[in-house]
Design goal:
Chain A: It holds the Pfam family ETF. The complex is a heterodimer of chains A (331) and B (254). Helix content of chain A is 28%, strand content 29%. Chain A is α/β, with parallel strands linked by helices and 331 residues long. With 254 residues, chain B is of the alpha/beta class. Chain B has a 9-stranded mixed beta sheet, sandwiched between helices. Chain B has a two-stranded antiparallel sheet with strand order 2-5. Chain B starts with a strand and ends with a helix. Chains A and B meet through α4, β6, β9, β12 and α6 of A and α3, α4, β9, β10 and β11 of B.
Chain lengths: 331, 254
């Protein structure tokens, strides 16, 4: 066992790893190799022994398992204590976390406590002799920037979902799996969880629908969603929406697609007035064909599209609905 | 109850234009109040109204006069602009300056927006909570306060999680909270007479170490790889729709 260089924080829910957390092995293994040290994984949760085994196959050299009922639910202060305990045990230079709601709380909380850098929601991570340099989206994913943190002190990095591939599992690797006992302070337990209202399943068959028509903030109002509904009906699609739209109350939460909503992989995704914030695109990037109608040619979703019309959706959508009805004999 | 709200003035996200030559935003991009921050202000005002007493103090690091005036016009009682030559630094510098101010103010509750629409790190709220060593509750979409306990509804991957905490705490607001009120004419008039303070990090005793950024930005760029698909721009709507229909037929999607 050589010196720990990189720690990946494997977030779990109900005894399973979050998919975004497994992508950290894709980001972390090459960094640990470059640094010539161990890749250490912290698996934090309750009933997570199976995840520890999985971490070994994905490239960890050493696995610390914080298996504690107090870690069963995502509460940032408690998981932060587990990470701090792992930092004391492994002393890594780089700490990688998923850019989940929990990861985006944990990394800045710990970076605040240690007065360390946090490189946020990174799509690329490069090592230089004197610094870690990363690419990250800014201005609501419309632009990118390069951020730089000097080496020589610990750096926290959150990895954007989907930016790093999960490595192929390699069974039979020799890894060390150690239990990690976490002592929680009184302050760690100041926040209690009273309940979880799971994502409503809703009436729509959004997750299995072959065609999904999604309206974003550009649709403008709850009333205007009539256009999206009519378009969906004309192409036999299910209606979905972005988080901005469900937060504004224009559409029900069960129609939300994205990080805090549903995941869809339809044959055809048709986005209307959707700019394509990563919060949304992580939930639809697996779609076979992506069609976008948007005013902004620089919208991230236009870059992902197989076919994009740049224009006013109020000009395009009614015409498209009418033509689809004609072509499909529903006029 | 004394409630502090951390707000930021940002380039208007609906007016962002990239200047390829400058490698930066086009000059003259209009400014706006960060949207989530307005929801945080609204939540603070409603809590004060529920309790029938208290004070709502808004603070901003960096240029933010219009934003602070808007918050006062919405009903905040007092505004503090923190300005200085080393500002803005990185998120940790901002958090350090705010934490120094908050130690002086000792509010019972702190609200912030979940993240800003510009850098969008989402760092400042959690870092302030870390520096003040108070509980953090993020992604808040609903709240209740009774018998000294806050119940907070959070939007997370698995659904809506309800957390409880006793103040002091730092809460990060999302836009599913109550719609921010628009300033009334009377509110705008009254805002002019409300206390508004301008202070520097030096006034707060922030050290040079705390003002030294740990993360630096190196310009803005756009993804070089342009769209790989068909992009129709400046095409007549009828023609564009016909081409889309042909595309969908070719892929046997209709």
């Amino acid at each position: 066992m050589s010196q720990a260089r990189v720690l990946v924080v494997v977030e779990t829910v109900a005894g399973e790893a979050r998919p975004a957390a497994l992508e950290l092995f894709g980001a972390g293994r090459p960094l640990a190799d470059r640094l010539g040290g161990d890749l250490v994984a912290l698996v934090a949760g309750s009933g997570v022994q199976a995840v520890a085994g999985l971490a070994g196959t994905l490239g960890a050299d050493r696995i610390l398992v914080a298996d504690d009922p107090a870690l069963a639910e995502p509460v940032v202060a408690r998981v932060a204590r587990a990470v701090e305990t792992a930092l004391a045990a492994a002393d890594p230079e780089l700490v990688l976390l998923p850019a989940t709601t929990l990861g985006r709380d944990l990394a800045p909380l710990l970076a605040g406590r240690f007065r360390a850098a946090h490189l946020v929601n990174c799509t690329r991570i490069q090592l230089e002799d004197q610094a870690v340099v990363a690419t990250r989206p800014v201005y609501q994913d419309k632009l990118l920037t390069t951020v730089r943190a000097p080496r020589g002190r610990r750096i926290f990095i959150t990895a954007r979902s989907g930016a790093f591939p999960v490595p192929e599992p390699q069974p039979g690797r020799q890894v060390s799996i150690e239990p990690l006992a976490v002592s929680f302070t009184e302050a760690d337990q100041a926040v209690t969880v009273t309940r979880l209202v799971e994502k409503p399943k809703g009436q729509t068959n959004l997750e299995s629908a072959p065609v999904v028509v999604v309206g974003g903030r550009g649709v403008g109002s709850a009333e205007n969603f009539r256009l999206v509904e009519e378009l969906a009906a004309a192409i036999d699609g299910a209606v979905g929406c972005t988080r901005a739209v469900s937060d504004l109350g224009w559409r029900p939460h069960y129609e939300q697609i994205g990080q805090t909503g549903k995941n869809v992989r339809p044959k055809l995704y048709l986005g209307v007035g959707v700019s394509g914030a990563v919060q949304h695109t992580v939930g639809m990037r697996g779609s076979d064909t992506i069609v976008v109608i948007n005013r902004d040619p620089n919208a991230p979703l236009v870059k992902m599209a197989d076919f994009a019309i740049i224009g006013d959706l109020f000009d395009i959508v009614p015409r498209l609905t009418k033509r689809l009805r004609e072509v499909r004999g529903k006029a | 109850m004394k409630i502090a709200v951390l707000v930021k003035q940002v380039p208007d996200p609906n007016a962002i234009r990239y200047d390829r030559r400058l490698g930066d935003l086009a000059p003259g991009t209009p400014q706006a109040t960060n949207e989530y921050d307005l929801y945080a202000v609204e939540a603070a005002l409603r809590l004060k109204e529920q309790l029938g007493a208290g004070e709502v103090v808004v603070a901003s690091v960096g240029p933010g006069r219009e934003t602070l005036n808007r918050c006062l016009a919405m009903g905040a009682d007092r505004a503090v602009a923190i300005e200085g030559p080393s500002l803005p630094g990185d998120s940790l510098v901002t958090a350090s300056v705010l934490a120094a101010w908050l130690r002086r103010e000792a509010p019972d509750l702190i609200w912030a927006g979940q993240e800003t629409s510009d850098a969008g790190t989402g760092n400042v709220g959690p870092q302030v909570a870390a520096l003040l060593d108070i509980p953090l509750v993020s992604n808040v979409v609903g709240w209740e306060y009774s018998d000294g306990v806050l119940t907070l509804e959070r939007e997370i991957e698995d659904g809506h999680q309800f957390q409880q905490v006793r103040p002091p705490a730092l809460l990060c607001a999302l836009s599913a909270l109550d719609e921010p009120r628009l300033p009334t004419l009377r509110g705008i008039m009254e805002a002019r007479r409300k206390p508004s303070e301008r202070i520097s990090p030096a006034d707060l005793g922030v050290s040079d170490d705390e003002l030294a950024p740990v993360v630096s930005w190196e310009g803005l760029f756009v993804e070089e790889e342009s769209a790989t698909g068909v992009v129709l721009q400046d095409v007549d709507p009828d023609q564009a729709v016909e081409q889309l229909i042909a595309f969908l037929q070719e892929r046997r999607l209709i």
